[in-house]
Please model this.
Amino acid sequence: MKINQTAGRCILACLLVFLLVQIYYLSCYLIPASPQEPWEELSVLYLVQSVFVTACICAVFFVQLWERVRRDAASPFARLLLVNGDGQVKKEVLLQGRYSFAITGKKNGREVFVETSQILEPGRYLYGTCNLVKGRWYLEAAASDRPIGLKRECDNVIYRLKKEMPYLLLDTDVIYADTYKIIFRKNETGSGGKEHGADPL
Model:
């Protein structure tokens, strides 16, 4: 699929270059050199057709570029679930339209929170932050003594994350903070709309 897309773009690019050369030749050389001749109208027709097809190809490239930018700015996950030590979902947070969130906890307790504010509330402790970069979520543990862990689908081990080092998050990863864990859900519809029961944070 990727090879077919690349080949199609190369063909369109070559056709675009050909049309641009043809437009330049027709408008600067052929038409001015043949005033009032019978085939002048045919040259003008070729020029109009070339301009029209060129505009269509440019529109295709513009739409593809816009789709690429929109896709890179969208979250690959629809939402996250904050689950406590008893297995109960404490909070469900939509991730579409969001570019970062923080994982915090209480200094005098074991409760964990997911929030967007960059300024911590009094009595809160920062475990780490997650940022969306070019369509991918990255987790970075805070520079502190309170650990945060990450479990991959293929492993039965929870890895303690190094401080201030970004880790790429997959939809099958589980983040552990104290007795809580954060689970991601894939964006199945791609619409980014609000789902039933989700908390917009």
User: Anything to note?
Assistant: The chain has two helices and eleven strands. The longest helix spans residues 40-73.
